Amino acid sequence: MAGPAFRAAAVRVRTPATSANLGPGFDALGLSLGLYDDVVVRVAESGLHIDIAGEGADTLPRDESHLLVRSLRTTFDLLGGQPRGLEVVCANRIPHGRGLGSSSAAICAGIVAARAVTIGGAEKLDDAAMLELATEIEGHPDNVAACLLGGFTLAWMESGVARAIRMDAADSIVPVVFVPSRPVLTETARGLLPRSVPHVDAAANAGRAALLVEALTRRPELLLPATEDRLHQEYRAPAMPESVALVNRLRADGVPAVISGAGPTVLALVESDAADKVARLAGEGWAANRLTLDAGGTSVLPLA
Ligand SMILES: Nc1ncnc2c1ncn2[C@@H]1O[C@H](COP(=O)(O)OP(=O)(O)O)[C@@H](O)[C@H]1O
Ligand SMILES: N[C@@H](CCOP(=O)(O)O)C(=O)O
């Protein structure tokens, strides 16, 4: 049987950074942030050519082991076959290994780009199937849900299948990130988690995660209690002691701060009039950035 046909024109995909967990919502809650990687994918006559600018330009592989290319390949297989050749041009702005969802961004960009360059791709792979595939590649659904859908997402697994709903965070909320210079791989930070946790901690997190949905969408004044976590942050402290100390210091000052994703970035969710002041609180050793909320998720854009 013949494989699929491909568009001759290049496709440009923009994909956001994400902050997962948000304190108590381990592997469930995610927030899409206004910091983006861009990728242009073109089907070529032969071979694989990868061009990378920005984050990872000195370290990422230029072969089939590149994460975005692996995601493209997996998606093409699902859509019925591989193109003869591929050109991939990446402009990376999301820092790697910092808890801002760079791997999810690469995975989602690959899936969306493969679907867009395949004629009839959207009919064969709908949005639910993209979430399922992205979760399979990433291993947990929280970042990829926010990355694909934008906004504030709640993801869960149902009979082994990832599902998600999208909400909008209150637009008075400003995400401020404190990014340290040293990375910690998500795999390392997940390896520090215990296999079981005390019932009292699980119960506390369930209540706070539920409260967080209300706080983030409608009542930001509840963000400090709503972002309290007992399931992952302290367990991860040995890999990121300065980050956990900064979270505790900010929280003691009344700032709703959490470890972003698996860390080591610290995320503060603050009202816009306090954002600049909060951004100055961390001091030396942190790149503090006042970001925006992303509403659109991973999108196919016109070529520049
Ligand atoms: N834009 C990208 N292109 C290719 N690979 C990427 C890209 N972004 C991230 N990765 C891969 O993902 C790894 C980081 O993933 P991870 O440890 O989950 O951290 P993060 O919190 O940034 O997602 C990088 O070391 C790299 O191997
Ligand atoms: N729920 C995951 C989130 C990982 O996010 P990342 O941005 O660090 O990849 C976890 O806490 O392990």
From TrEMBL:
<dbReference type="Pfam" id="PF00288">
    <property type="entry name" value="GHMP_kinases_N"/>
</dbReference>
<keyword id="KW-0547">Nucleotide-binding</keyword>
<dbReference type="GO" id="GO:0005737">
    <property type="term" value="C:cytoplasm"/>
</dbReference>
<dbReference type="Pfam" id="PF08544">
    <property type="entry name" value="GHMP_kinases_C"/>
</dbReference>
<dbReference type="GO" id="GO:0004413">
    <property type="term" value="F:homoserine kinase activity"/>
</dbReference>
<keyword id="KW-0067">ATP-binding</keyword>
<feature type="domain" description="GHMP kinase C-terminal">
    <location>
        <begin position="221"/>
        <end position="280"/>
    </location>
</feature>
<keyword id="KW-0963">Cytoplasm</keyword>
<keyword id="KW-0418">Kinase</keyword>
<feature type="domain" description="GHMP kinase N-terminal">
    <location>
        <begin position="69"/>
        <end position="151"/>
    </location>
</feature>
<dbReference type="InterPro" id="IPR006203">
    <property type="entry name" value="GHMP_knse_ATP-bd_CS"/>
</dbReference>
<dbReference type="InterPro" id="IPR013750">
    <property type="entry name" value="GHMP_kinase_C_dom"/>
</dbReference>
<keyword id="KW-0028">Amino-acid biosynthesis</keyword>
<comment type="similarity">
    <text>Belongs to the GHMP kinase family. Homoserine kinase subfamily.</text>
</comment>
<dbReference type="InterPro" id="IPR036554">
    <property type="entry name" value="GHMP_kinase_C_sf"/>
</dbReference>
<dbReference type="InterPro" id="IPR014721">
    <property type="entry name" value="Ribsml_uS5_D2-typ_fold_subgr"/>
</dbReference>
<comment type="function">
    <text>Catalyzes the ATP-dependent phosphorylation of L-homoserine to L-homoserine phosphate.</text>
</comment>
<dbReference type="GO" id="GO:0009088">
    <property type="term" value="P:threonine biosynthetic process"/>
</dbReference>
<dbReference type="GO" id="GO:0005524">
    <property type="term" value="F:ATP binding"/>
</dbReference>
<dbReference type="InterPro" id="IPR000870">
    <property type="entry name" value="Homoserine_kinase"/>
</dbReference>
<dbReference type="InterPro" id="IPR020568">
    <property type="entry name" value="Ribosomal_Su5_D2-typ_SF"/>
</dbReference>
<protein>
    <recommendedName>
        <fullName>Homoserine kinase</fullName>
        <ecNumber>2.7.1.39</ecNumber>
    </recommendedName>
</protein>
<keyword id="KW-0808">Transferase</keyword>
<comment type="pathway">
    <text>Amino-acid biosynthesis; L-threonine biosynthesis; L-threonine from L-aspartate: step 4/5.</text>
</comment>
<keyword id="KW-0791">Threonine biosynthesis</keyword>
<feature type="binding site">
    <location>
        <begin position="95"/>
        <end position="105"/>
    </location>
    <ligand>
        <name>ATP</name>
    </ligand>
</feature>
<dbReference type="InterPro" id="IPR006204">
    <property type="entry name" value="GHMP_kinase_N_dom"/>
</dbReference>
